[in-house]
Amino acid sequence: MERNKERSWAEPYKIKMVEPVRMISREEREEAIKEAGYNTFLLKSRDVYIDLLTDSGTSAMSDRQWAGMMMGDEAYAGSKNFYHLEETIQKYYGYDYVVPTHQGRGAEHIISQLLIDEGDFIPGNMYFTTTKLHQELAGGTFVDVIIDEAHDPENEHPFKADVDLIKLENLIKEKGAERIPYVSIATSVNMAGGQPISLSNLKKVRELTNKYEIPIIHDMTRVAENAYFIKQREEGYEDTPVKDIVREICSLTDGATMSAKKDALVNIGGFLALNDEELFRKAQNMVVIYEGLHTYGGMAGRDMEALSIGITESVDEDHIRARVGQVQYLGEKLIDMGVPVVRPIGSHGVFLNAKKILPHLSQDELPAQTLAAELYVDAGIRSMERGVVSAGRDPETGEHNYPELELVRLTIPRRVYTQAHMDVVAESVEAVYYQREDITGLEFDYEPEYLRFFQSRFKKR
Fold first, then answer.
1. Which of 47, 219, 254, 263 is catalytic?
2. Is Transferase a UniProt keyword of this protein (predicted)?
């Protein structure tokens, strides 16, 4: 007799090395978060039990990547590891030219300086902090053209990173195509909760930008995760390998910035990839000024080798299924517990809906920052705020930007934690949720000029 019960799955790897972690006492955690100004970025990692601050540079490398590190060619010019990286990017992503950088924001800086003039407008499917800042520093203004569903944490739209084509074309007509240097398209949009863009929508964006001769620059930090969602959710792609979907996504764009510290499973590194040779030559010249020679950028040879191998591993079907599956596991547990989260569950983390968890706190009382601090005190879990603090201030008025989404991100590093760790996280979130009415808010005590969420300090109101 055939059973219909769904079988359990396990991670597609064995653990070869471990790093001990410790849980300090609640009293010590209370003192640690106070000393850190209630900013989880300012905590010492030795005082953190489960670190879900970010998936950037926190993944575990494979035995093949570690072996590749021993093959580092540290020649100042012409490193063989660069040529291997270039070949790998061309094979899996399809871009013609590669400029290595120390991480994604190095690539964002170069492309912004090359393409944006004072007074330009850059439409995109929701902002990302560093991307938007580089665009502003170059004299541009970011304009959000993502679909409205992306701003509703409870909406179950399967592709909440889709572009609203009417918003985009209206902007082009209003400002003029000559004032729009490129359209900024992110795959697996971070600030929306790790939500994917569909290929059908991206094709329509490509058709529209071709009409107005506007290039598309792709933030491909989590492109493999986006491709996995397309395979799961978009009609006609259920039997298509993830690596082929990745290649198709990239083929619809003109260039890309990549923080390799996410999808590509390395602790440092990134690149700018382009198809336009003239633009590539300019970028190649700029990288020498800000990063390093054009055949290493900001990376050592060994890091480029680990990155080449990581790109290959990132599109492996077993890997990506387990990576996204662990995030889904945590998200589904929290939903079953009644905790308000962004739905559907995204690719790289579970995003807690701080507005709904702490409805008695206004955004001026920083509910997401407050909730992140409370989670740390409860069980030593480090998460991060994605709300009014991350949104920064309006450069003209100096007032806070108030995003619709006020979230706490529980970001899952790749190949680092077990399902048991996810159970501990879920139980901690549940415990904080059920004492939510006793939680009081925070206010700024120190605020830096740029990217304030990294270094701001707060105090109890």
1. 219
2. no
